[in-house]
Request: fold
Amino acid sequence: AQKITQTQPGMFVQEKEAVTLDCTYDTSDQSYGLFWYKQPSSGEMIFLIYQGSYDEQNATEGRYSLNFQKARKSTNLVISASQLGDSAMYFCAMREGGGFKTIFGAGTRLFVKA
Amino acid sequence: DAMVIQNPRYQVTQFGKPVTLSCSQTLNHNVMYWYQQKSSQAPKLLFHYYDKDFNNEADTPDNFQSRRPNTSFCFLDIRSPGLGDAAMYLCATSPQREGATDTQYFGPGTRLTVL
Reply:
C-alpha cells in the first residue's frame, strides 16, 4: 500500500538561508510520481515540483529542488534562499503510475524568520 | 490564464441544510477531483470523475455526492451537512494521460462552515 511520511511537523529557517523538508514514501509500484505542494494560510494548494520514478536527474524548479534517493525511498525538498513568503504548510504527495489517487503526507509547517 | 476556479470561497450553511459547492476549469483536463481537508490535516480524496465516469472512494460518506454536467464544471453536493463536515473543500484537475503520472492542479478551495 502507498504511504507518505513527513516527520517534521514544524520547521524554522532564517530568511535567506536554505532549508530541507523531509519526505519518505512506500510503494510496491515501479512507476510513480512524487509531488510537493505549498499551502499558504489562504488554503490554496500550489504545485511546486515533480519527480518521476524513472527520472535520473533530481528535479529543480527555481529555488526549489529535490534530493531524490530512490533506493532509500526519500524525496526531500530543498528551498534555497528562503523568503518570508515561503512561510506555509508543505505537503509531499505520491501517485502510482496511471492511477488517480494521490496520497498526501501529514505536512510540514515552515516558518521563515526575518 | 488557464485555471481552476471554485465558488464560493466561503460558504456557511446550517446543520442539515443541503449545500452545493462548484468548481470550473479552463484547462480542458479530463479528470476532476474533490478533496476534503480538515484543519491541520492532509487533503483526503472524496471522489473523482474521469470524463463522465464517476469514481467514489470507499470511505466517502453517502452524504457526499457529485455531478459533472460537462468537461468544465463539477459540483459537490452535501445532502445533510453535519458539524463534522466543516472543512476546506478542494477541487483539482489533471490531464491523466495513459500510464503517466500527471500533476494535479488545485483551485483555491471553498471553506465550509456548518452552524
Notes: The interface with chain B takes residues 31-33, 35, 37, 42-47, 50, 52, 91, 95-102, 104-107 of chain A (CB under 8 Å).
